[in-house]
Model the fold of this input.
Amino acid sequence: MLASLSRSVLTALILALLGSSGRAAENPRLELLDDRLEPVSALTAGDSLVVTVDGLEAARGYELTLLDGNGTIHGFVRAATDAKGRLGPELIWYHSGITGTDPAGDGVPGPGFRDREEAERHLLATSWELELRRVATRAGVSASGQLVAGWDLPVRRAESPRFSVTDFQGRLRSSFEVGREAVYLEADGIAPGMPLEVWIVADRSSWKSGDLLENVTDVRRTFSATTGRIGPIWSAGQQRVGRYDVVVRPAPARRLENRLRDVDIVLYGLDAGLVIRPALTSLASAQRHVALSGRVLSEYPFFEHRSIFLRGGVIAAAVDPSDLRQSGSPDATVFRWAAIHVVEDKNPIEWLADPTLNDVTEVVEIRPVKFGTLEVNSGPVWSNPEPAPAGPNGYDVVIDLGARPLGGPPQFDGQYTAGIDILDGAIVAGLRVLDDPSQPGPFPVGRARYDFPDAADLAYGAFADRNVDIRAVVAYPGETAGEDVPMSPGKERFPLVVILHGNHAICNVGSGCSSNCAPSNRIPNHEGYDYLLDLWASHGFIAVSADGFDVTCKNNRYLERGAVILEHLKRWDKWNQPFFIDGTFNGRFRARVEMRNIALIGHSRGGEGAVAAQIINQNVDLGWDIRCVVAIAPTDQNTSNPPGGGPRSFVLGDTPFFNMMGSSDGDVTNMQGARLFDRAAPGGQKADKSQVFIYGANHNSWNTIWIDPSWNFGGDDGVGIDRISDEKQQLAAKVYITAWLKAWCMGEQDLLAIHQNRLHVPELDGVRSYWSYEATDHLDVDDFQNGPADPSTNSLGGVVTVAPPPEDFLESSFRPGAYDGSFYHDTLGLILGWRQATFYETEVPVAQQDVSAFSHLALRVAIIHDVDKNPVLGAGRLEVNLEDGAGRRQSVELGSEAFDPIPYPYPHPGTSWKTMLSSVRVPLRSFRQDGSDLDLTQIRKIVIRLPKTGLFAIDDIQFTR
Done:
């Protein structure tokens, strides 16, 4: 901690006098960070002041103020702590004031120094202190509270060599108007004749050795430098709007090294080293409605703009100059502070009627605007979103830009001013906060059951099963909670969900498979999903778990399982009829079931049965409106001819399908459900489909009866490492299945973000779920399905080039037994293995180059176990970039925190490795972030850079939503 003894003692005395000594939650610990966000003991003159503070109250607002010895304010931040009581990292003072006397080059004076030497003398000769105060009020921007702590701020002289961005006259600059003048560097402490290499790269919030360097100027610039002006490093004609960092490399090698080295000098870290801003326009005509909300990432691009969040998750905000370019350019020299509000959503008419900003969060964040720019440091703006019912339509983030009297506190008008302030929602809400789907919904849960012995002769299937029991337990939205209570009041109709269990013992005595088992000894397999039924009923579903007693413990019977489900639908259709004489429920469900809104779910053989039910329904035109199908650890074993024709291996056509599997499944060990997923929605039959492969999940724990030892035949079939608990596995089912049901049966499409791995569920921390997701709306660049196998051409007819030639380069089956025997799919794909850095390029023909209507680049990837090419067990990485018609490109790293993990195969005893393809979905805006100028209307090439060694499987390269 950097506080001097005298200041620590003084602060303690002040707090005692203020009566705050009882706040045991506060034990503030300050840490200074350098440009690479590494801890340092002092601020280096010329660096930006970045700090974190630990030991504070959670989800509480605090202010950090930087003052000199005369009490003049030089830096100020207001923000809320996270759930652990941590503040930051927060950027308080850009470049420690060394930003020039005309930081924007537009003749408007700034508060900076003429040059580095003048600034350093002043900084070293002045005393500096940081004050930490607790914010007194929840809303507003003006009320500061009690002093919590104070620290003396050590400042040290800059070490040589040092660099600053300047104009031709050598004036320090923060920004340049695009195309107006060249950019130069000012060097201090450079040995005469030292060779230098200068890179201008997309801005990163932090840098570490080994990070990719991609020069946006397309020119390798080298200099033989001396102290003084260097350049131009970027001519006016080559510039493009955006936010950049400058990397200076002393003594560059002859061969291009495009990774950051320890000796490289970066301008800067958390803030940009160089901003190229748009040409100034009239503020009155600039309606700045841009994306602001999202989450902070630990790797490039360091911020993911998104609009969907769960309660309790952190919401952050950031300004991307790529967006501001599209909506007009502010006179950035006017603004010095940004007050960041989260407010209930308003449409343009409502904003005109009432522009008042009423913040709903823990505190209104205030962050400095970098001199000469509109750069605002990204960071949390709502640390613990728990919205009240008053905000059902969502929220907007508004950045209220304020003037800064030199040496005084920030000033704001507290209103949204169109054309000046920045708004992330206009016609639609900027963000929405959703409930965790695993949490109970608003309805009390009623419970019921029905039992019709020997009630049906199955109409479908080769076995002609007769006298089949139709038995089920039911959960429904009730007037109150309890058995056989009335339905929820009103006339609302509720969607119907039917779930069917799989193969398991049906009798608690003997062999376990006696069909003549006395009712008192029957194993209630269908009651093992009560935890799901109750949850779904609370959310407004009528949830039915069917007992497959008469089709269980018997071979095959997949069509028959589908027929059992359809028999239950018949009865629910009757109970819903207004004039049907209902002797079972006495009209309780009359006109309350939405029979045009049905979901089918099955576990194990029941999963294949649920798929069969929909295939029968469509093949023979039964007319049931089945909105989606879910399979849990399903089989894929049918050998009977489906009625109405069609392949014996079920192909689910235009119905949204979700498949859930566990890597430790000790029953369906060969992951047959992956084949159902791969075949679903083929060709012209389009539907969204989702699949999750959960490391450590087994087969039986989805059903609580199957793991209950009191039923004798219960047990744990889990096989393999890293087993997760039964509770975690069932929680995953609650989250993932409920999200799917609500998306397709209740129109809550925002919840699909969970299936696309874009919405974090904190309760599932530690559960490794690997997703495949394919949206209806997509363009296949290469799905590798068209024969004959030719890896040199993609599905669009574009040329595929790999250089240098890899060791393995072939289109192969990923079916069981193919290639190395570790795959379980029903698809073809690319095997790519290499032992030296390699490029894989797939060209997009001119007719398909406009991908601006899509939101993501997606591909399915898997690492293949290989002790030589993939020697390290763990997630793998690939580097991918898009290239447009003008040769502009931008790279991201697949497998990073930002863009989905690429898992190593699961080691499974007895079956060696399980290699399962997983989707990586990259938002297209990530390729345009920070002003890359990539033209999405003419993407001509997808380029994958492969590291030194690797063996990967790739499938379904596509642009999608």
User: Anything to note?
Assistant: The first strand starts at residue 29 and ends at 33. The chain has a mean pLDDT of 87. Residues 318 and 378 are 4 Å apart (CA to CA).
